[in-house]
From TrEMBL:
<dbReference type="InterPro" id="IPR024084">
    <property type="entry name" value="IsoPropMal-DH-like_dom"/>
</dbReference>
<feature type="binding site">
    <location>
        <position position="219"/>
    </location>
    <ligand>
        <name>substrate</name>
    </ligand>
</feature>
<dbReference type="GO" id="GO:0051287">
    <property type="term" value="F:NAD binding"/>
</dbReference>
<keyword id="KW-0520">NAD</keyword>
<comment type="function">
    <text>Catalyzes the oxidation of 3-carboxy-2-hydroxy-4-methylpentanoate (3-isopropylmalate) to 3-carboxy-4-methyl-2-oxopentanoate. The product decarboxylates to 4-methyl-2 oxopentanoate.</text>
</comment>
<feature type="binding site">
    <location>
        <position position="247"/>
    </location>
    <ligand>
        <name>Mg(2+)</name>
    </ligand>
</feature>
<feature type="binding site">
    <location>
        <begin position="76"/>
        <end position="89"/>
    </location>
    <ligand>
        <name>NAD(+)</name>
    </ligand>
</feature>
<keyword id="KW-0432">Leucine biosynthesis</keyword>
<keyword id="KW-0028">Amino-acid biosynthesis</keyword>
<comment type="pathway">
    <text>Amino-acid biosynthesis; L-leucine biosynthesis; L-leucine from 3-methyl-2-oxobutanoate: step 3/4.</text>
</comment>
<feature type="site" description="Important for catalysis">
    <location>
        <position position="141"/>
    </location>
</feature>
<dbReference type="InterPro" id="IPR019818">
    <property type="entry name" value="IsoCit/isopropylmalate_DH_CS"/>
</dbReference>
<feature type="binding site">
    <location>
        <position position="134"/>
    </location>
    <ligand>
        <name>substrate</name>
    </ligand>
</feature>
<feature type="site" description="Important for catalysis">
    <location>
        <position position="186"/>
    </location>
</feature>
<dbReference type="GO" id="GO:0000287">
    <property type="term" value="F:magnesium ion binding"/>
</dbReference>
<keyword id="KW-0479">Metal-binding</keyword>
<feature type="binding site">
    <location>
        <position position="243"/>
    </location>
    <ligand>
        <name>Mg(2+)</name>
    </ligand>
</feature>
Amino acid sequence: MASEIVVLPGDGIGPEVTRAAVATLQAVGRRYGHDFRFQTHLIGGAAIDATGEPLPAATLAACRQADAILLGAVGGPKWSDPSATVRPEQGLLALRQALGLYANLRPVRPHPVALGASPVKPHLLAGVDLLVVRELTGGLYFGEKQRHADRASDLCEYSVLEIERVLRRAFGFARARRGKLVSVDKANVLETSRLWRETATRIGREEYPDVALDHQLVDSMAMHLIARPRDFDVVVTENLFGDILTDEASLLAGSLGLLPSASLGDGRRGLYEPIHGSAPDIAGRGIANPFATMLSAALLLRHSLGLEEEALAVELAVAAALDSGALTADLAAPGQAVSTQAAADAVLERLE
Ligand code: ATP
Ligand code: MG
């Protein structure tokens, strides 16, 4: 059966890196005999320029029909005038919301070539292999906001249902990995965090007794993540804490150009994108690192299409390309960098 994949290149380096990821999926399709069909649509600044809207109806309709969505990046200086009423980023938020993609996954497994580029000491990083699961559609970012002349407020609200569904996802991943889950909250101060912790404890006891559940307060977790990153397997947390901890965790990997992400809902459909932005400073020069987006394609194979062997093949091919010295400017020694295309080719030739 054919798989329908919607490709949203977006802005800046988005088109350059998604091209490499589509080529990756095509190579996998040829090698393993899968029929992947691609449809490209507009999002972000490119969509604003063409239609006036960051998420055109045609794009959303195509995404609703798709098995999976591969995205580059959105945004850039052209659309970031403070007086602008429509922004590229709104397109992405609206898409996640419309598709109910409440669980954001960011795996971090530093490759040896990137260890020197991390601010964390290499001996602490060897063997790090963690997965951060962030709740993406609730909490402070979506609660009622009020602004008065001399004060402002943002409501943080979570329902048991919202907590349960993201926790079940995280417990499931922990069970399939090394069986360890750390749930991060601020239960000594926040009511939403107390509900989060109670819910995690209950689900763990009733449904995942085989997974070792630990709770951490977000402030101490921020330290542990740098001081002993090797100790973690799956880490799950709410929206705001996850936003901060995932950026922190990205430092462990050395370069933004190596980190993929997946956003999942209840079904299999997911949205896959590199964690980096549109990198306007290097856009159009053919020097961006395509690996984060190629690794996002691997997550697409794993989580939306259920193709674990194929996903692993992509991950191994990227690791082998890095081992062979196919390093773009973000990772290479001065004068040694290869182009986006050459880095992508080093992966593709290993997949053919
Ligand atoms: P956003 O607000 O969209 O998250 P940002 O301002 O955080 O964007 P990025 O666009 O991610 O920033 O870029 C941050 C820095 O990292 C820039 O200097 C950019 O050139 C670099 N960078 C990001 N992605 C890549 C990549 N794939 N390859 C090489 N360098 C990259
Ligand atoms: Mg950013």
